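Annex B. Sample input.
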Amino acid sequence: MSLTLRTLSIAIALCSASVTATAAEGEQPKVVVLATGGTIAGAAASDVTAGYTSGQVGVEQLLAAVPQAGKLAALSGEQISNIGSQDMEDAVWLKLAKRVNELANTDDVDGIVITHGTDTIEETAYFLSLVVKTAKPVVMTGSMRPSTALSADGPLNFYNAVAVAADPFAADRGVLVVMNDWIHSGAAITKTNTTAVQTFASPLRGLIGTVAYGATEYYRYPVGKVGLKSEFSVEGVEKLPRVDIVYAHAGMDGTLIDAAAKAGAKGVVVAGVGNGNMTKAALTALAKQAKKGVVCVRASRVPSGRVSRNVEVDDDATGTIASEELSPAKARVLLKLALLSKREPEDVQRLFREY
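Annex B, continued. Sample output.
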């Protein structure tokens, strides 16, 4: 389908009774851009320099750099933060989530774009997938190259993200991530390469769809509970519980697991080997902390695959939780939200099955 025909179909759909189509006939959809920093807002000393500093460009400059996006939607912008995503923290997550919910609940916003660094975009996307309460499109994007690069990928990523956020067919798919022409679910995406432009993949569940120069195509809806289906909320939440990740390796002992608990962690995720496995010494330490009330999750450092309950580890005996499909980073996100309420181990395991 050509871009002209696709744009026409969007305009027609926006006049329907869709829950996301609030723009009146003849008007552009209204999309708000929330900027948090990252490489897409980064700058380098020259256009062929590998080194750069994240978070140097503000949201107004981002909007001005891609005027073509103004043909897709009526855009406005807000600066939530301006940091490299390696410095993303709970306070920014909560601020961002609450602002997204505020905007989504107004009649004059049809979609939201969030610009974000790529280092932790998968964690933020999953967090927002669980706590944003809207069927309207919420789309994250970023770049692998700074805005000053010879062949910056940010402008087209941003343009495509606006196209998806303005598209009523993107509704009710949870938080999406648009990178390099691919549309990912925030629950499925992971970064696979340190520097390559085509770094993001959804290895277990596959893509939600594709977007090429603003023309969108969708294949599926996310698996698991996201968006309006999620039971989690950050309304009134000012602080999230501490959850630490401990990386498993050959010859590992339980020192770091015990140290995490001593430092105040309410939950510990072990990035285990294979199917969430670890040494006997580490498993003994993990079981000890589980009996003390620390919620302990077995995940895997392997890039893809499921960590199943009661396979090589007797989770019933050790009191541990299997992460199912979630990576260690995403298991940490889910556990932080789960710990906002007092739960029995069986209920925590249910969450990892359902989310």
